[in-house]
Structure formats: C-alpha cells, structure tokens
C-alpha cells in the first residue's frame, strides 16, 4: 500500500514537472517566434497580420502569387510587407515605385536572396492545317537557340537526347512553383530529412545530371585551338588553373551557368511566343494587319532579318503589346536589399527580400490607356510611329535587369514574323475559345490550346 502511495506521489510530481516544462516550452517558443517576427523599425511598410510561425504565408496563393499581390496592393498601397515564416519580404508595386527602386536606387536593391532549396543542385507533323499544340514546336525552336550557344549545335526535333533534355527541363521548372518550395526555403532544416530533397526535387536533380552528361561529352572532343561554343570557352578558362577557379571558372559553375541559361532563356521566350500566337487567334484583324506589313516590307520570299524591324512599327508594337499584356514574369525575380535603404518614406533594412511586382507595372492604370486589354496602339503614336512608354519593363530594370534582353528581342521578332509570313493561325472549328488567363509556375503561360496553321 505504502509502495502504491509512493508511486502515485512520484507520478503526480513527475506529471506536474512535465506540465510545467510543457508550459515553459510553449511560452518560450511563442516568445521566440514573436521576437523573430517582430518588426523593430519605425516607418516599415504596412502589411497583413503576421501569424505565429507561418507569418503571412496564408495570404498568398503561391500558385498565383501575382493575383494575391494585386489584392494586397489595393489594400495596403504601393509598398507592403509580407513574412514567409521568419523572413521579411517587401513587395513593390506600380511603375513609379518599381522604377525608383530598380533604377534610382539600383545598388541598394541589387542583391539576390539565398535559396536553400537550390543547395542540392550545387549552388551555394505537323500542321498542314490540322489542329496542333504549337507549344512543343516553339519550345524546341527556342531551346535550340540556347543549345547552339552553349553546345554549338542544334538538335533535330525528333532527337532522343533533345526530347529528354526538354522533358527533364519542364519537370524541373514545375517543381519550383507552389507552397512547398517556399516552405523549404523558410525552414531549410526540413531539407535535412533524409530523402526529402531527392523526392521533392527529383526533376531538377535529373536535369542537372543530364547537363553533366552533355558537358562530359563535350570534354571528350574539346580542342583549345578550336573554340566552338560557350562550354568550350568556359573549359578553356578553367584550364588557367587556380586564379581562374577563384574567379568562378569551376566545373560546378559551368553546370550551374548552363542550367541558368536554359532556365532564364528558353521558357520565357517560348512562353511569350505562345501568348503571341494565342492573341493572333483571338484577334484575327490584328493578325491580318501584321501580315499586311510583312508583305509590304519583306514580301513572301526572303526571310525576315533584324534590319526589317525599324520599318515595321505595327508588328513591333504588336510584339511589345504581347509582352505587356502576356506579362510573362509577373513578379520578376526576387531581389534583396544590399544595405539599409528608404523608399517613399518607408524604411527597408539590409537583407530584406524584395519582390518587384512587374505585373502591376505592365498593367499600371496610371500609365496605360487600356491596361487590361490587348491594344497594340499603346506602342504607336498618332502618326503610326513606334513608341515605347517607360513603364514597359517586362525585362525589369537597373543593375539586375535581364541579361538576355537583346537575344530575346531578336528571337521574338524573327520567329513571329517568319511564322506569320508563311501561315495564318486560326482557331479549329471544334475548339472552344482559348482561355486568356495564365498558369503560373515562375512564368505565367497560356493554358494549352490548339491552332490550325493555314499556309498562306
Ligand atoms: C521574353 C523573354 C525574356 C523575359 C521576359 C525575361 C525577363 C527577365 C526578368 C524579369 C528577369 C529578372 C530581372 C530582375 O531580377 O530584376 C530576368 C533575368 C535574367 N534573364 Fe531574362 N528574360 C527573357 C529572356 C532571356 C534570355 C533569352 C536569356 C539568356 C539567354 C535571359 C537571361 C537572364 C539572366 C541570366 C537573368 C539574371 C540576371 C541577373 O541575375 O543579374 N533572359 N529576365
């Protein structure tokens, strides 16, 4: 009996100790979380209420962040703050604000945030009038431009290696969107759970492995006296030894830069072209005007060249309007403040992630006559001459602006005019009118649609 009583008293004291410890741990964790989420600066931008541990993540639909940002923009103004768990983000909206940050305070906003989810990669028939999905052809053509630059060769569309490359690349891009990658960036410890990176980023790993194979093949035929392409030139620099390595010419960087060029240079351009042909389907009268200008300036026989662009203001305006209205990189790429800075009276500390809401610039109601319509006249003056409003920033602006802008412009002009010179794009009779809203996965692309390309 005595033993039982003793056991009971021990148990109850142990239980009360556990309860005290539990209460202590809960209070401590909540306090710690509060301190981490606390914004200690005066004049910090406003934003939605930050919840324990997850911050403001519930306010953002990570599959369509630009739409959430536009709603928050209306509520909190041009500069508002968000919190992904314990990380502070500031979202910039509208032409005036984005320009002030990226151009006038370019250096302050020039850094890029660090993303732990990339660590595992090694960073710190066709037509004949029949309906088809031109996504694959356009994607193949644009990827071949990057392949020519990097590997010095283009692939046939049926080539097994090429098909595999495109397939792996598409899978790896899809893995970037959504809530999970955001969460892993904020709580990188989850990446240490065995098997998690391999499972979540299977596609990216496979894409990088494949790039390794292509580089290895290149090394076998490498001849320093005969530089064929970017990979050859990079390998030649690597040969220079330690100094070159310190300057970034390492094998690991070669594979990462290659992957970057694919990621930055193919999806964006190919998606813009998919929007272009979608708008031509939806606006046949605009398509006819472009074709009339092509016939007048280039004719039907010779291929278009970049020299023609200056004499084709209407076509140029249409391509620019495709980029504005298509809004392919709606929330840009994240920046990070390089030092403490001020923007329109708000204080933004060093190391804050900055989201430039490019969509809010390209559709800024204060700048564009018809922001939510496809209206090429945005880029034409009263005399039909091409004009480019300053708020045209699909490539962003400032020090971190797109490096491939010139290449992208050439690709858009040459592919667009060449195809419209040879074909008229029409909606197949049995097909519903394609959707005009985009699907977001870093870039915003059209929902799949079918076209008929009728030879002219
Ligand atoms: C229509 C096509 C394209 C669009 C709309 C586009 C748009 C963008 C945007 C918005 C950024 C982010 C800039 C910033 O952070 O402020 C960017 C960055 C970048 N783009 Fe493009 N891009 C296109 C084509 C290309 C091409 C063809 C290449 C190269 C082959 C390329 C290479 C890059 C690189 C390397 C960066 C990162 C620059 C840096 O971190 O400093 N882009 N692009």
Notes on the protein architecture:
With 456 residues, this protein is of the alpha+beta class. It has a domain at 133-425: Cytochrome P450 (Cytochrome p450). Helix content is 48%, strand content 9%. The chain is built from 16 helices and 10 strands. The chain has helices at 2-37, 65-76, 95-104, 135-151, 160-174, 179-186, 196-200, 202-220, 230-238, 242-246, 251-265, 267-282, 284-297, 313-326, 358-362, 405-422, and strands at residues 79-84, 87-93, 335-336, 341-343, 346-348, 353-357, 423-426, 438-441, 443-446, 452-455. The strands form 4 sheets. A 4-stranded mixed beta sheet has the order 1-2-6-3, sandwiched between helices. A hairpin with a 2-residue loop joins strand 4 (341-343) and strand 5 (346-348). Helix 4 runs antiparallel to helix 11 (251-265), helix 8 (202-220) packs across helix 11 (251-265) and helix 12 crosses helix 13 (284-297). It is globular and about 105 Å long. Bound molecules: protoporphyrin IX containing FE. Protoporphyrin IX containing FE (HEM) is lined by residues 260-261, 264-265, 268-269, 272, 328-329, 332-333, 335, 394-396, 400-404, 407-408. Protoporphyrin IX containing FE is lined by residues 260-261, 264-265, 268-269, 272, 328-329, 332-333, 335, 394-396, 400-404, 407-408.
